[in-house]
Design a protein that fits this description.
single chain; about 325 residues; alpha+beta; Double-stranded beta-helix; 7-stranded mixed β-sheet; 7 helices; 20 strands; about 20% helix; about 30% strand; disordered C terminus
């Protein structure tokens, strides 16, 4: 064996740990194929005791498909010429601060899936931590297959068959659904140049609240982040239903999620078509830096509500 495996966490129906995978082992196509099969089966992998290099991140990412380049020009690239597709996600001191249940944190994010505001999703993301914080900075993961099974039957029946409209909105005061009980924006996030113009050119994206994998499992896949409402029912009743769904996701997230505290020698990949993820936030006085690659691949169920106004909007932001 080129690596060892172990359960992600006792009692969780998803996820697996892969230990001691090397860059040399990843040159073997059989090893890459085995890693990809584990990923499809378990929904996410925590790679432990792996080399912390750009080359290793790209090698791991290559197991799962081609990279998807980030189309937003203002997003910081690590090195576009040498490392195409690798972006940096930085929590800057004193920026993007929100108060959640009486605690002020920066870079907090609610449960969501990536690319919800686009007609195409991405298959997966690979993250590694470059600069860590002492407290917080935890990434949570929640499996949509397990979420569907655990959802209250009546609420599940009401949301199944519905579609959700999403729009690119990133500021904390724009969160419409699933807000914590005590929640307010303190300091907005800095936005890249041209961001407002790009957003204006993008129509809303539509995605199903529940979809079925080729293997037959149903996935509950609703992002509170950037959700605008239920398609065809953007009424007070429809809004109340979507709020109930998002709050139930919050509730179940405290019971069935995996909370990853970043170490100095790990990387994580999650299935964006199946999983939701969130970020706990960290002390606004500290900085946190992550490197991410995005794996191309879509489920073919999303669409634009109307035609994009330009090719910029059609390009699918990450």
């Amino acid at each position: 064996m080129s690596f060892t495996t172990s359960p992600l966490q006792e009692g969780l129906p998803f996820g697996i740990r892969v230990d001691a995978l090397t860059l040399a082992a990843l040159q073997d196509k059989a090893v890459r194929d085995e890693i990809d099969a584990l990923f499809f089966r378990h929904g996410m992998i925590v790679f432990e005791a792996v080399e912390q290099s750009d080359e290793m991140q790209l090698a791991i990412s290559s197991c799962f498909g081609p990279l998807k380049e980030h189309p937003v020009k203002g997003v910081s690239r690590v090195d576009s010429d040498r490392l195409p597709g690798v972006i940096e996600i930085r929590s800057r001191r004193g920026k993007g601060i929100v108060e959640v249940d009486g605690r002020q944190v920066s870079h907090w994010l609610p449960w969501h899936f990536d690319h919800c505001y686009n007609d195409e999703l991405n298959r997966a993301g690979v993250l590694r931590s470059v600069e860590r914080v002492e407290e917080g900075g935890i990434t949570g993961f929640l499996d949509g297959v397990a979420l569907y099974a655990a959802f209250p039957e009546d609420l599940r029946a009401r949301i199944e068959g519905r579609e959700i409209a999403y729009r690119l909105e990133t500021q904390f005061d724009e969160l419409r659904f699933g807000r914590p009980a005590r929640y307010r924006m303190i300091e907005p996030k800095p936005m890249p140049a041209g961001f407002a113009e790009q957003v204006a050119a993008m129509p809303r994206a539509i995605h199903p609240a529940v979809w079925t994998r080729a293997t037959g499992e149903k996935v509950l896949h609703v992002s509170a982040y950037m959700a605008q409402g239920i398609v065809g029912d953007e009424t007070s009743g429809g809004g109340a239903l979507l709020e109930d769904v998002c709050q139930e996701i919050n509730r179940l997230g405290t019971r069935f999620s995996y909370q990853h505290k970043w170490g100095p020698d790990d990387m994580v990949i999650w299935d964006n078509l199946r999983m939701l993820h969130c970020v706990s936030g960290n002390d606004p006085a500290e900085e946190r830096l992550m490197y991410r690659t995005t794996i191309a691949g879509d489920y073919g169920l999303g669409r634009w509500e109307t035609a994009p106004q330009s090719t910029v909007g059609a390009d699918a932001m990450a």
